[in-house]
Amino acid sequence: CLLRDFGLVSVTPLAIMANHTSADELTVETLSFKFMSTVLTGGCRVSANSQSIAFTSLLDNGLNYCNLYTLLTASGLAAQPDFMEMTNEWACLGYGLATCK
User: How many Cβ atoms from other residues are within 10 Å of residue 69's Cβ?
Assistant: First the structure.
């Protein structure tokens, strides 16, 4: 999954919407990021979602999670000292099977 495969749809101070198109251009996923400030730490919470249109997304080795993970790591956010990722198989179907490259 390359960053050039992502297309920006819209940006506001509180949200980002984008699309990811597979290399073979057969599948498209919609991605959304919502930003909220946190009162206790004075930091920021990002809620993200990647949704596949194709039915086969249930057997895609965690493609939706990997889309978000790729952007997260490429942005440098995951390398920040206070970064904490909070997800699981219930919140992100395919998380346990994800084989991100």
Answer: 21
For 13, phi then psi, to 5°, come to: -60, -20
- Phi-psi category of residue 81: left, alpha or beta, with phi > 0 → left and psi -120 to 50 → alpha: alpha
Whether this model's pTM surpasses 0.90: no
Tell me the domains of the chain and their CATH numbers: 3-97 (3.30.310)
Q: Which of 47, 46, 1 is nearest to 28 (CA)?
A: 1
Q: What is the pLDDT of residues 39-98, one digit of tens each?
A: 877 788 889 888 877 655 556 677 788 888 888 888 888 898 888 888 888 888 778 888
Number of other residues whose CB lies within 10 A of the CB of residue 38:
9
- Amino acid, single-letter form, for residue 65: Y
Cβ 72 vs Cβ 84: under 8 Å: no
Amino acid letter for position 33: F
